[in-house]
Design brief:
The complex is a heterodimer of chains A (1025) and B (391). Chain A is of the alpha/beta class. Chain A contains 34 helices and 37 strands. Chain A has a seven-stranded antiparallel beta sheet with strand order 14-13-10-11-12-15-16, with helices on both faces. Chain A is globular and about 85 Å long. With 391 residues, chain B is an alpha/beta fold. In chain B, a hairpin with a 4-residue loop joins strand 1 and strand 2. Classes of the chains: A alpha/beta (1025), B alpha/beta (391). Chains A and B meet through helix 9, helix 16 and helix 17 of A and strand 2, helix 3 and strand 15 of B.
Chain lengths: 1025, 391
């Protein structure tokens, strides 16, 4: 069946900002879908509020709307564009929910827009717990015993059938927000009530606990002729009880016999048929009782997902691209397998390696949040690694995480076996490492299995690694080729071997190379070598032995090439924005005629799509792993250089090591980058340029910190040197606080000093991104923060162009930016953070590399600054691009999005430590409208009527008057506590006074709980100007 | 469960305890698994990620050394259920990683123990992906695996042995793996709750000619209400008819269809002429084609895996199939009256045929799966329907 010609235009809804549970995998899927549909000649209309996505790049879709993804806004776009169809399966839960809402409103019918890829019935059947359960019963698949509840009372009744422990899952939420496992009645009550709150339909599922069972996922694709294929099976190393997004997983499933696997395969396909997913990709999750193989179905997602992105990267099969083509009527046998180029898409990928995915967590940014895992997802990113064996892929994945691990690093724990076992029963981010440590402490595999419920197969593998480590620790690094090669084949990094043997990593590398032990590269080809692969999608492995020479399939070309190092796993402070920059670098270098080589280990990203660069190496971003790739590439053709300034802190950290090894680094020199990070050298530079910064000092001891703080005067901002995303950065207001910080928050030493800066209260912070070729400078964007200086720039909203700064201040900022870029000899991008107080411009920070705001600036001013930067780095001149400072006819506002709902018990307060996971952009003719859009896009539902609660400290009372007046004009009523109420009444405004919590009842909390307050969280920033 | 087979001593020089020597003289060194000794065969690869035990016991692999492309083999140990023949099957195995301790609730013990019990010789620790490329380029070469714990090998002699092995072309292996006497079959398909079942009441009787039949074919037939008499490959038409079949099944098997066909084809021709519904799989399919007047040929690269797409040309549907064949029916030799019903979507070769005017059809692949996807189970229903329509 060929593609449909009864539709000409298709809307795709994106996933919006990056949040936990919905990250850049949807940019990867969406970008593939847009390209796939355009390739077929359809007009593609895209809506996404996230400016840091590749999918929203101008020129990708035919029409791109960077607008809030709300039914109201999307409806307006539908009215304007009148597409024939809407594809809702590429933008995660956000897109599905928006599509359903549009259907509820009658919009789709009214405008004659067809849903393609998934219909309403299928979405509901998959998402509605009751309907899903009866669908599964119909096809004879087991589910855990469960009951639905819409209230606490119903929940208690349900417990009579289900029994504790049980799992609580709210309906229609993504990533399991608000859910969890209850072992006792108290926990049950807490989780049910948060679950009911989180569910848009006030509905939770209370379910038999199958904690400890084995967990599997199947990625299935179906076409409209009912052809079904399994793309990939995934086995969770963490047993049931941990959200699959938070679990360590492997592909393919490793501990199933064929008979069991086929039961799961048949069941997956039956699920798609029964749910009615006519075309596209879906994810089906199973639990298996390890005692008897009993199979239970957990859930299914009738759309592409994080797992489908992982499956695509794990196998080379582009699920989203194929799903998009199936949605417009193709059948699988009509589509090609891009990787082989000779076979159709209607087959099941088979792999000859093992893929391991490990999630990355950021509990350290949320003090007060317990580092425990459950059914609600908490990880912010993931790393994937490929090896020929489980151990190789596992150890590569561990070092890909960039959490300082070189392998199964030692963990601190009690020596008491009882306590160790108790620790292993807890699902924590470190459980795998704790298991390895437990083996080190002599616990038996059986005991570890009993506590952790990890499949014994995985435990045996970990035990073997620990045994090998012990041998190296006792007898040193093997001097024979067989011994060392065995270790490398098991995935040990040079760094880990160095630690174990007491050598340096460089010494290990030298001994290794002396013995002729170097990695080879194998291709990810969807077919285990059955057909020739046209696509250089590669991973490293150690092959061969003492007698046979290993064969490498990398086949570098004779071309002139540029390598781009990616950003690794997403984390707070380093996310999709940097991947956007890396992808742009690849595009730009291709345009400039270079062969492009991408090295990265994040499966969620566009950068690791096999068609983003000419050659893709899925590798950990360590000196050892990247250097090996680059040396291989240098063996033929010319490596013009490596771009390390686009992937955030990750590749920058490698720059020195690569440069030492003789790898050319493009753009701004690593030395200049170091200069900007080195407080003392940087001060000298500012002195030379006669620029000022807040008073500051470098403390190498607690005493020095006191001395500096006293000199500067409190409050001061303190942080360790060399951090991104404001890790461990705090504003301290007293000696006590400083004392606590120095003793608890950081380990200060000569090597890792603490920076102490004067804190400019109520200053305006400004972010600047500029381009330079060392001779000319183009100031691309000046962004005025909405939050005051002191809130991490990644967490602040900001406006472009500035909305309150005077013209002469802006000009001064430009002048200083230029001076800095030239003095640092920046070749490429540079970001500067300024603070403006009383007309004086202070420099807070300079980063001569791509920053988080690059995509936002590029989209605001409509210049592809990341691409231009990459070309400048490769040798072109700024003047070649003819960039002009133009007066924008619009205002853009960037707003940050936070994961506080994932970390109950954590204070929802912003500070110098970055906590946001993503961002949105609002764009309109004036600041107010753009700001409003940014709020809508960030998910803030602004009321249009009702009571507004205003309570501010004396300092801010003056500021609040205007706001209150406007709100009254708009028809709101105002409620305030005594102080504020008195003040506003004095100003002649009508205000209802309410008790503070301690003043008697009913008080403000009562009003809030009763739902009498429509709007209570008027942020400080609304009042600021 | 037995302890880890292989915990290497990192600080001692190792000995290669096994070698794989190909007919062209190339040598791969590794570590022996299974029994010690030497085994010769055609080196093929199999891309299935599950079901190594079924593959090793598939009689169609007789005369072959299987290279498993998936690196971890042995991870689910072995059990007594996942066996496709009690007779001989694959000649040896070649794997990448050390055979690990078994996981899985169904595992009886370590795979290595079973390999020794079954007299299977294997080699681990070699780059199976590189070997797969060699097989892809050379066509399936002949090879010898030698396993000797002291690591001493006469490579020249092994090279000679590999080069002199006659190869599968012209080889009648069906006779060797076939049953010698007829027997009755009533075991039905496996379920996770109760394992294999027993046929309660038969609605029809099938005679299956055993060229190397996989048990799961017989189970599938039994599950469709067929009682079955399995007869040796060399059975005459009269032998077959003496069991009063409602339908005749021509089994899968190893080797060259032309060779086995010398005695089997005349019998098959009589079966076709008799008008009794007939269904053939793999070798049975190839010899049916020859009986109908078509020719077969050896493929440069066989189909061996559980991910092979086939299009049913009669319905337009795509099924993912389990395949294991190195010979194929030449499309251009299909005579009048024979229609092509199934086609490989990988390389377009003929995967199924049917007679226009008789209840006779066959497929090149393995609808009984085991290992592999069960998308093609419908063919057993198709056969049973033909049998019933004919009755």
């Amino acid at each position: 069946m060929p593609k449909r010609d009864d539709i000409q235009s298709i809307m795709i809804i994106g996933a919006g900002p990056i949040i936990i549970g919905q990250a850049c995998e949807f940019d990867y899927s969406g970008t593939q879908a847009v390209k796939a549909l355009k390739e077929e000649g359809y007009r593609v209309i895209l809506v996404n509020s996230n400016p840091a996505t590749i999918m929203t790049d101008p020129g990708l879709a035919d029409a791109t709307y960077v607008e809030p993804i709300t039914p109201e806004v999307v409806e307006k776009i539908l009215e304007k564009e009148r597409p024939d169809a809407l594809l809702p399966t590429m933008g995660g839960q956000t897109a599905l929910n928006t599509a359903l809402a549009l259907d509820d409103r009658g919009t789709l019918e009214r405008l004659n827009v067809q849903l393609i890829g998934a219909n309403r019935e299928a979405i509901e059947k998959a998402e509605d717990r009751d309907k899903f359960r009866s669908a599964m019963q119909k096809i004879g698949l087991d589910m855990p015993i469960s009951r639905i509840a819409h209230s606490m009372e119903e929940a208690w009744n349900a417990l009579e059938d289900v029994h504790l422990p049980c799992i609580i899952r709210p309906s229609f939420t993504m990533g399991g927000t608000g859910g969890g496992i209850a072992y006792n009645k108290e926990e049950f009550e807490t989780i049910v009530s948060s679950g009911l709150d989180a569910s848009p339909t006030t509905e939770v599922l209370i379910e038999e606990s199958i904690v400890g069972w084995k967990e599997y996922e199947m990625e299935v694709v179906r076409d409209k002729a009912d052809n079904c294929i399994i793309i990939c099976s995934i086995e969770n190393v963490d047993p049931m009880g941990v959200h699959t997004g938070d679990s360590i997983t492997v592909a393919p499933a490793l501990t199933l016999t064929d008979k069991e696997y086929q039961i799961m395969r048949n069941a997956s396909i039956a699920v798609l048929r029964e749910i009615g997913v006519e075309t596209g990709g879906s994810n089906v999750q199973f639990a298996v009782n390890p005692e008897n193989g009993r199979l239970i179905i957990i859930e299914m997602n009738p759309r592409v997902s994080r797992s489908s992105a992982l499956a695509s990267k794990a196998t080379g099969f582009p699920i989203a691209k194929i799903a998009a083509k199936l949605a417009v009527g193709y059948t699988l046998d009509e589509l090609d397998n891009d990787i082989t180029g000779v076979t159709p898409a209607s087959f099941e990928p088979t792999i000859d390696y093992v893929v391991t995915k490990i999630p990355r967590f950021t509990f350290e940014k949320f003090p007060g949040a317990e580092a425990s895992l459950g059914t609600a997802m908490k990880s912010v990113g993931e790393a994937m690694a490929v090896g020929r064996t489980f151990t190789e892929s596992l150890q590569k994945a561990l070092r890909s995480l960039e959490t300082g691990l070189s392998g199964l690093d030692e963990q601190e724990m009690s020596d008491d076996p009882q306590e160790i076992q108790n620790l292993l029963t807890k699902a924590t981010p470190n459980r795998l490492l704790n298991i390895a440590e437990a083996f080190r402490r002599g616990l038996s595999l059986e005991d570890i299995h009993r506590s952790s419920k990890y499949e014994p197969w995985f435990l045996r593998q970990i035990e073997t690694l620990v045994k090998m480590e012990n041998a190296v620790r006792e007898k040193g690094l093997p001097t024979n080729k067989g011994g060392l090669l065995t270790l490398k084949k098991m995935g040990f990094s040079d760094e880990r071997l160095a630690k174990l043997s007491g050598l340096s990593a460089a010494e290990v590398a030298a001994k290794r190379e002396e013995l002729g032990i170097v990695p080879v590269y194998k291709r990810i080809d969807t077919c285990a070598g059955e057909f020739t692969s046209q696509t250089p999608y590669l991973y490293s492995t150690y092959e061969g032995n003492e007698w046979d020479t290993p064969v490498c399939e990398s086949e570098p070309t004779e071309r002139k090439k540029v390598a781009i190092l990616g950003g690794g796993p997403n984390r707070i402070g380093q996310g999709i924005e940097f991947d956007y920059c890396c992808v742009h670098a690849a595009y730009a270098m291709e345009e400039a005629g270079y062969e492009t080589i991408m090295i990265n280990c994040n499966p969620e990203t566009v950068s690791t799509d096999y068609d983003t660069s000419d050659r893709l190496y899925f590798e950990p971003l360590t000196v050892e792993d990247t250097l090996a790739v680059l040396k291989k590439e240098q063996s033929k053709g010319t490596l013009h250089g490596v771009i390390v300034q686009f992937g955030g802190q990750t590749p920058l950290k490698l720059a020195a090591g690569l440069e030492t090894a003789g790898i050319p680094i493009l753009g701004t020199s690593p030395d200049a980058i170091d200069l900007a990070e080195d407080r003392e050298r940087f001060q000298q530079l500012l002195h030379k340029l006669e620029l000022i910064q807040p008073e500051n000092g470098i403390a190498r001891s607690v005493e020095e910190a006191f001395e500096i703080a006293n000199r500067i005067g409190y409050p001061v901002v303190v942080r360790p040197s060399y951090v991104l995303g404001g890790r461990a950065m705090e504003i301290v207001r007293s000696e006590d606080q400083l004392d606590r910080y120095m003793r608890e928050a950081v380990q200060v030493s000569g090597d890792t000093p603490v920076l102490v800066d004067g804190y400019l209260q109520n200053a305006i912070e400004v972010d600047v991104d500029c381009l330079s070729d060392g001779k000319d400078v183009f100031v691309a964007g000046i962004m005025e923060h909405i939050e005051e200086a002191g809130i991490h720039s990644g967490d602040s909203a900001c406006a472009l162009p500035p909305y309150t700064l005077a013209e002469d201040v802006i000009e001064e900022i430009r002048r200083q930016s230029r001076a800095l870029a030239l003095e640092l000899n920046v070749i490429g991008l540079m970001n500067v953070q300024f603070a403006v107080k009383d007309g004086t411009v202070y420099i807070l920070e300079v980063n001569p590399r791509a920053s988080r705001t690059v995509p936002f600036v590029a989209k605001s001013i409509d210049y592809p600054i990341a691409k231009i930067a990459a070309r400048i780095m490769a040798g072109e001149k700024l003047t070649d691009f003819n960039l002009k400072d133009t007066q924008l006819k619009h205002v853009t506002v960037k707003e940050a999005v936070f994961p506080f709902n994932r970390f109950p018990g954590v204070d929802v307060i912003l500070g110098p430590e970055m906590r946001s996971t993503g961002e949105v952009m609002g764009i309109d003719k004036d600041f107010a409208s753009a700001f409003l859009k940014s709020q809508l896009a960030a998910g803030v539902k602004l009321p249009t009527e009702g009571k507004v609660f205003i309570s501010v400290k004396d300092l801010d009372k003056e500021l609040v008057k205007d706001v209150a007046e406007k709100l009254l004009e708009l028809g709101f009523e105002i409620v305030s506590t005594t102080g504020t109420a008195n003040y506003l009444q004095e100003q002649g405004l009508k205000v209802e006074q309410v008790n503070k919590v301690m003043e008697g009842r009913p008080n403000i909390v009562d009003l809030m709980k009763n739902g009498d307050i429509a709007w209570s969280s008027i942020q400080q920033r609304v009042f600021r100007r | 469960m037995s302890k880890s087979l292989y915990t290497p001593d990192l600080h001692e020089a190792r000995t290669a305890t096994a070698v794989l020597v190909l007919g062209d003289g190339s040598v791969f060194h590794g570590f022996g698994i299974g029994k010690t000794g030497e085994t010769t065969g055609e080196v093929c690869f199999n891309t299935s990620m599950t079901g190594y035990q079924e593959s090793l016991t598939d009689p169609s692999f007789a005369g072959q050394l299987i290279t498993f492309t998936f690196p971890h083999i042995g991870n689910v140990g072995f059990n007594d259920e996942d066996v496709e023949t009690s007779g001989s099957a694959a000649n040896g195995l070649i794997v990448r990683a050390d055979v690990t301790d078994p996981a899985n609730w169904r595992a009886a013990d370590h795979l290595n123990k079973w390999l020794i019990e079954r007299d299977l010789i294997g080699i681990s620790g070699i780059d199976t992906r590189r070997l797969t490329h060699v097989i892809r380029e050379l066509g399936a070469p002949n090879g010898v695996i030698a396993h000797n714990e002291n690591g001493e090998f006469d490579l020249e002699a092994l090279k000679k042995k590999a080069a002199e092995w006659p190869g599968l072309e012209g080889m009648d292996l069906a006779k060797e793996v076939s049953c010698k006497e007829p027997y009755e079959w009533s075991e039905t398909s496996w379920s996770i709750e109760s394992g294999y079942g027993k046929l309660q009441s038969a609605k029809r009787h099938i005679v299956a000619v055993d060229y190397g039949v996989k048990k799961n074919i017989l189970r599938c037939l039994a599950s469709h209400g067929c009682s079955i008499t399995v007869v040796p490959a060399t059975s005459s038409f009269e032998d077959i008819m003496s069991h009063k079949p409602d339908g005749i099944f021509l089994a899968n098997g190893p080797g060259d269809p032309a060779a086995t066909g010398e005695y089997a084809v005349p019998v098959i021709r009589k079966c076709v002429d008799s008008g009794i519904p007939t269904f053939g799989i793999c070798l049975g399919h190839q010899m049916l084609a020859i009986a109908l007047g078509a020719q077969t040929m050896k493929m440069q690269q066989g189909h061996r895996g559980a991910n092979q797409p086939v299009k049913d040309l009669t319905t337009g549907k795509v099924e993912i199939t389990s395949q294991n064949h190195g010979f194929v029916v030449k499309r251009e030799t299909l005579p009048e009256g024979v229609i092509e019903t199934h086609k490989s979507l990988f390389d377009g070769v003929v995967e199924g045929i049917a007679l226009k005017d008789k209840p006779v059809f066959s497929v090149q692949y393995h609808p009984e799966a085991s290992p592999g996807p069960q998308d093609s189970y419908y063919l057993f229903k198709r056969f049973v329907d033909l049998v019933d329509a004919h009755a």
